[in-house]
Amino acid sequence: MTTLNLRPSLVTLSTDVHISIAQFMEPYPDMHALSMTCASLRAVYQPLKWRYSMVTVLPPFRKYQRYMTVPLKVVAPQPNKYSWFYAHEVRILELDGPDYGGIWGSMNVLCKKWFVDKYYPDYDCYSQHQQLHFRCF
Considering the entire predicted model, what is its pTM? Predict the structure, then answer.
């Protein structure tokens, strides 16, 4: 006779509960750490941790406090090319770079309606222009 282990744990919670919990967590390091604990939590938190992403232009790519760091070549022009980056979960993109002159073409692509609708469906740079932040370090 097999007995079931019914002890409550993070793994036994539904995905909806995890998404509710994630609202109170930072993408990095909280969601990132949870996504590395086991396969079931990875399936939930790996996509969610990309909601707030810092796009870096030049190496070396450094970590930012609450943001997941991603190179510009991943964000545009083909974000679905990289299986580890979940573009459909992105809510806020911030850009870190010393000079925007050399990347203006990529920046224009990021706010084209067809591009955003296809790759970033939850990202709204039309009605809320403040969602796309530009920072120069």
Answer: 0.68
